[in-house]
Design brief:
The chain has a domain of 61 residues. The longest helix is centred in the C-terminal third of the chain and has 12 residues. The radius of gyration is 25 Å and the shape is extended. The protein has 135 residues and is mainly α. It is 23% helix and 0% strand. It is built from four helices and no strands. The two termini are 42 Å apart. This is non-specific serine/threonine protein kinase. Its EC number is 2.7.11.1. InterPro entries: AGC-kinase_C, Kinase-like_dom_sf, Rho-assoc_Ser/Thr_Kinase. GO terms for molecular function: ATP binding; protein serine/threonine kinase activity.
Length: 135
């Protein structure tokens, strides 16, 4: 990412409400060089001790009820995600041009394999296959 070129924490006038100083400091300490990043020296303890998290009870966090529990209708339900002005056609065109391959989001991170590929034919042959020796 090019946070150093694009992240400007000084001009937040476009936001509906101003960010707190602790919030801005946390963002700045996360979006910085790795050697300076919060947590790089003391790990999670350093992050938990930041003033932004002062009201968080980390010891009992798993026992508390979430403030927002999304309603999910099915495994592929994306209604809880804001797509904004997302233009899928432009994304497809850009991805296809950059990669030189067709890009279809329905097959993102999809790996093809023959589940019944006995002897490379793609269909079970009914013959016994050779067992590979154990390592």
């Amino acid at each position: 990412m090019h946070w150093d070129r694009f992240l400007d924490l000084t001009s937040m006038g476009h936001l509906p409400s101003p960010l707190s100083e602790n919030c801005v400091d946390m963002i700045a300490r996360l979006c910085c060089e790795e050697k300076d990043r919060i947590g790089s020296k003391l790990g999670a303890t350093e992050i938990k001790n930041h003033p932004w998290f002062k009201d968080i009870d980390f010891e009992n966090l798993r026992n508390t009820r979430a403030e927002f529990i999304p309603q999910v209708k099915h495994a592929e339900d994306t209604s809880n995600f804001d797509v904004g002005d997302l233009n899928c056609q432009d994304l497809l065109k850009d991805a296809t041009l950059k990669s030189g391959h067709n890009f279809n989001p329905a097959f993102y991170d999809f790996t093809f394999r023959h589940f019944f590929d006995y002897e490379g034919g793609g269909q079970p042959t009914g013959r016994q296959t050779q067992q590979r020796p154990s390592i």
